[in-house]
């Protein structure tokens, strides 16, 4: 490929090509595009390679208005649309403008013959009678113009004769009659001239009106073509995504790495279909407005057959993003991948309106994927009210992740707000880069009536505590009146000085992209009189793309391929593991009545255990002893030396106990 500063080149003034920066929007700023000027048309592409198959837009120069802007800038206006372009240098800008002006002049001269030579394709096909009617009216006006032209010639000649005769006058008596004749002929000439002017104006007005309509039709065709090109591009991307999913599918090949191990372990690819039980959520929740969701007695009908510990573990679905990040030399590029990972954890939630089971105190969940993906994960429920879990993941591919999350949820009447409190920590072994961030608010809408749907909103600030790099992500809440794409996420990656290096954009249910900033400037349009920063970037690169859902997912709680395996029974896990929870297992099997009965038994047993602990604490206080608070089995409360945060972190021992199959410390919670 050519260098980024390849200048415009070509054999003649009407055949130019080269890189220019084209203004897109305030988020992406100027984007580099490959422009080709040929045959009176200026076309542009994302890359030179795209010239063979995908044109991003075409500007007809015959009707374009060319205007010089600030340094290295110029503006093309055509069909009511403006294109703001920028060259690498002032000299290159002048060469482009000169070439465009020459091409416009050539195109204007060729306009009567352009119908057969343009490659814009046919115009929008208005009714044939409408076109014939317009042509007939224009022909009629042209005939009027010809008639006026003949009359002007006739009366003009007569007026000229009268003026000549006036010069030859001898007697004064003749003069009065001659002047009268001259005056009459001058009046006729003026009337005929006015008629000619009016006929010309009618012709021009009519021609302009039809021209505008045809221009609109042409613009509509261009927009339709552009939309079609975008659709084709999106289909191509989806095709690539499906191909990738097919390559990675455990059912389609026998690779000895990655998903090949997944096949060898025989992970399941489906669960029983969800029964079609109807139950009115409002009838249960109408008396619970303002209460914490964890304190509302909910039947399993509104659950999904996974616990909150398993949902927390599901954040690891796109762990390969962290594997890639671990190999990054640049901490800023690494930050982009960490940001994409933080967004990817929401991708499975878009259709997941079922509530996960609230884990019992002391419940655990392990996920050992060392063979397939290089990591193993352990979660433990460390508090029941408020519900809180501690999570620890270590990867052989260069990273460790840990978090303590407390779920604060409120029922507001029409919707439920779920606010995960606490921080997620991620540390890369080689560089020591230590990233910390928290989750956004999830909202479940249409509790009273209509179809349940989920939205994510709020900001995520990711901080690298080693060098103070920062990323600010914004999850835009859904708005019926917004023109933005739904589920939009935007962000910027900055160094410790606050200088922006990357722009991030995408949606939390589909993909994220990053674009490297090569120049920033202040433009107008900011709120409260503030200037808005405009970033000029290189073309965006794909960071993350969501995997397609498995076949029949709509009947399996919309579970992803990973989620389908999370509750699969495994030998050797702790007796407190979520896979062994009986009500959850019954619900997965479709036995919801039995699951509800078992759920009540488990919750009553947990209430009795809590009262027993409270009674022991009260007794200790009466005897002047220090009351012992509940202590998790696998996690200790510690203060992080870098962030200064106090939280429960993994103290070790779980995997060793599993190797020995010694679970004597575990409580009998099920």
TrEMBL record:
- Which molecular-function annotation in GO is an example for this chain? cholesterol binding
What are the PH domain coordinates in residue numbering?
A: 13-105
**Major location, coarse class?**
membrane
Instruction: List where in the cell it is found.
Output: Membrane
Q: Which InterPro entries match?
A: OSBP_sf, Oxysterol-bd, Oxysterol-bd_CS, PH-like_dom_sf, PH_domain
Specify the superkingdom. Eukaryota
Tell me which PROSITE patterns the record gives: OSBP, PH_DOMAIN
* SMART domains in alphabetical order: PH
Give the family per the record: Belongs to the OSBP family.
Q: What is the official name of this protein in its record?
A: Oxysterol-binding protein
Q: Which organism is it from?
A: Cyprinus carpio carpio
Provide the taxonomic classification. Answer: Eukaryota, Metazoa, Chordata, Craniata, Vertebrata
């Amino acid at each position: 490929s050519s260098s980024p500063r390849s200048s415009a080149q070509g054999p003649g003034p009407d055949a130019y090509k080269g890189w220019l920066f084209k203004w897109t929007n305030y988020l992406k700023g100027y984007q580099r595009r490959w422009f080709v000027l040929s045959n009176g048309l200026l076309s542009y592409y994302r890359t030179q390679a795209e010239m063979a198959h995908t044109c991003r837009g075409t500007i007809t120069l015959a009707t374009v208005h060319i205007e010089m802007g600030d340094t290295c800038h110029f503006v093309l206006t055509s069909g009511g649309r403006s294109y703001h372009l920028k060259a690498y240098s002032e000299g290159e800008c002048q060469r482009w403008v000169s070439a465009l002006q020459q091409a416009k002049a050539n195109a204007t001269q060729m306009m009567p013959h352009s119908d057969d030579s343009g490659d814009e394709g046919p115009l929008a096909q208005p009714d044939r009678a409408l076109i014939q009617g317009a042509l007939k009216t224009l022909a009629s006006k042209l005939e009027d113009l010809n008639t006026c032209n003949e009359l002007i010639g006739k009366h003009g000649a007569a007026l000229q004769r009268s003026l000549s005769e006036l010069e030859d006058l001898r007697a004064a008596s003749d003069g009065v009659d001659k002047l009268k004749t001259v005056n009459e002929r001058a009046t006729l000439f003026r009337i005929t001239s006015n008629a000619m002017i009016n006929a010309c104006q009618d012709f021009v007005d009519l021609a302009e009106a039809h021209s505008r309509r045809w221009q609109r039709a042409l613009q509509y065709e261009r927009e339709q073509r552009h939309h079609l090109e975008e659709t084709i591009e999106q289909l191509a991307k989806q095709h690539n995504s499906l191909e990738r999913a097919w390559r990675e599918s455990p059912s389609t090949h026998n690779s000895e790495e990655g998903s090949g191990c997944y096949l060898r372990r025989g992970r399941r690819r489906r669960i029983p279909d969800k029964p079609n039980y109807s139950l009115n959520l409002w009838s249960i929740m109408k008396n619970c407005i303002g209460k914490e969701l964890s304190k509302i007695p909910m039947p399993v009908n509104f659950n999904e057959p996974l616990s909150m510990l398993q949902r927390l573990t599901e954040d690891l679905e796109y762990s390969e993003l962290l594997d890639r990040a671990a190999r990054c030399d640049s901490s800023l590029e690494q930050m982009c991948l960490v940001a994409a990972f933080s967004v990817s954890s929401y991708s499975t939630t878009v259709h997941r309106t079922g509530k996960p089971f609230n884990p019992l105190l002391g419940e655990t969940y392990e996920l050992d994927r060392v063979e397939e993906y290089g990591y193993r994960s352990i979660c433990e429920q460390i508090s029941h009210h408020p519900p809180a879990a501690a999570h620890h993941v270590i990867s052989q591919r260069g990273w460790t992740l840990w978090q303590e999350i407390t779920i604060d949820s409120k029922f507001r009447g029409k919707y439920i707000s779920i606010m995960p409190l606490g921080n997620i920590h991620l540390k890369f072994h080689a560089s020591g880069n230590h990233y910390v961030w928290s989750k956004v608010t999830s909202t479940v809408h249409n509790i009273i009536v209509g179809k349940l749907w989920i939205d994510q909103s709020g900001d995520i600030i990711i901080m690298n505590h080693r060098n103070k790099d920062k990323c600010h992500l914004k999850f835009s809440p859904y708005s019926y009146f917004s023109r933005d794409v739904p589920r939009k996420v935007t962000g910027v990656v900055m160094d410790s000085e606050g200088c922006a290096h990357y722009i991030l954009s995408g949606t939390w249910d589909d993909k994220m992209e990053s674009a490297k900033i090569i120049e920033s400037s202040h433009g107008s349009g900011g709120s409260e009189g503030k200037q808005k920063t405009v970033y000029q970037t290189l073309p965006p690169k794909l960071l993350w793309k969501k995997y397609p859902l498995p076949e029949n997912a709509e009947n399996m709680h919309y579970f992803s391929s990973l989620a389908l395996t999370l509750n699969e029974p495994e030998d050797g896990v702790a007796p407190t593991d979520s896979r062994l929870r009986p009500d959850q297992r019954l619900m997965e099997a479709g036995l919801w009545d039995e699951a509800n009965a078992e759920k009540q038994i488990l919750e009553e047993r947990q209430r009795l255990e809590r009262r027993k602990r409270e009674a022991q604490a009260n007794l200790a206080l009466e005897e002047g002893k220090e009351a012992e608070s509940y202590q998790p089995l696998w996690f200790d409360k510690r203060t992080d030396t870098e962030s200064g945060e106090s939280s429960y972190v993994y103290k070790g021992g779980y995997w060793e106990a599993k190797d020995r199959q010694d679970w004597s410390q575990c409580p009998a919670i099920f």
